[in-house]
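Sample intake sheet
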Amino acid sequence: MGDTIIMVIGCGTMGSGIITSFLSNPRHKLLIVENNVSMLQKISITDPTLLQTIQKNGHVQINDRITAIKDLSQDFSKFGKPRVIVEALPERMDLKKELYKRIEEVFPQDVIVGSNTSTLPLQQMADWFKYPERFVGMHYNHPAHIVPIVEVVKLARTDPNVVSQVIQLLEQSGKVPVLLKKPIDGFITNRLQHALYREIYALMEDDSISAEDVDKVGKYMFGPRMSVTGLLLQKDCSGLDTHTFAQREMVKVLANNRICGSVLENKFKTKELGLKSGKGFYDWNGTGDPNQVQNEVNNRLIKLYDFLNDKNIPYHPQQSKL
C-alpha cells in the first residue's frame, strides 16, 4: 500500500494543528495550501529560502512528506492526487463557496472534501457541490494536534463509503472519530460544553460559587470520572434507576436562559479576556509568557491522553442498539 496524500487548505491555528496530526502517521504525505506564506511558520517552516521559493514559484517541497502550495492553480500532476482535502479557512461563507467551486474544477469527484467549520451550516455548504456525495464535516477540537476527538458529520447526500474512509483515515492518524448521522448546530462537543457553562454562569451570577470552586469540581470530580467511563457508561455503572430519579428532580431547577450569561458578558465588555489580556476569571499578571503557560497546559494534556490510550481497560461493554 502506497502513501496517502492529504491536502489541508489553510495553515492557521486549526489548520496547522490538523497538519501536525496527519504527520503523526509516516504513511501520510501533506499538500499544504496557504496563500499567506508567513503562516507556514505555524508548522515550524522558518527557512527564508523556502518562503522565497514558494513566493516565486507558487510551490515548494519542504521535505519528503510536505509540499507547500500558494493556491490551486498549480499543476497537480507534480504532486499527486489527494485522497482527502481538509478545508480549514476562516469562518466566512464567501471564502468557502469560492474555494469549493475551485476544488470541483480541479479535482475529480472521487476526491473527498471535508470542512473543519465549527459554526457555519454544513448542509448549505454541501448543497453548493455538483457532487455532494463527496462532502463531509470534519470538526476538530482545539488544540487539533492534541485533542483526539474529531466529529465526522454525514450530510443528506454524503456517500456512506466516504464517511467510512474519513473515519479510517482519522484513526490512522491517532484520532478518535465520532459520527454525527446528520448536522447538529454546535456539534456534540460544543452543545455539551455550553450546556454546562450555562449552568455554571447561572450559579455564579447569584454568587453561589466561585470560579476556583467550579474548577475544583471539574478537575477533581468530572474530569477524572469522565476520563475513565465517559458520560453514559458511568451511569450504567451507578444505575439508571438512581439516575432517572435524580434527573426528574434536577431538570426542574436547571438554568434555561436563552442569552449569554452576564458573568461572561461582563468579562468580555471589560476586556478581561483571560490569559491573552492578563486577566479573566483569574489574574494572570506576573505568571510569565502566555505561550509558555499554554505549552505547559498542552504538555499535561499530552501526558493525560497517553495514559487514556491504554487499551487494557477492565470493562468491555457491547454497544447497545438504539
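Comment: The chain has two domains: 4-180, 187-308. The longest strand covers residues 4-9.
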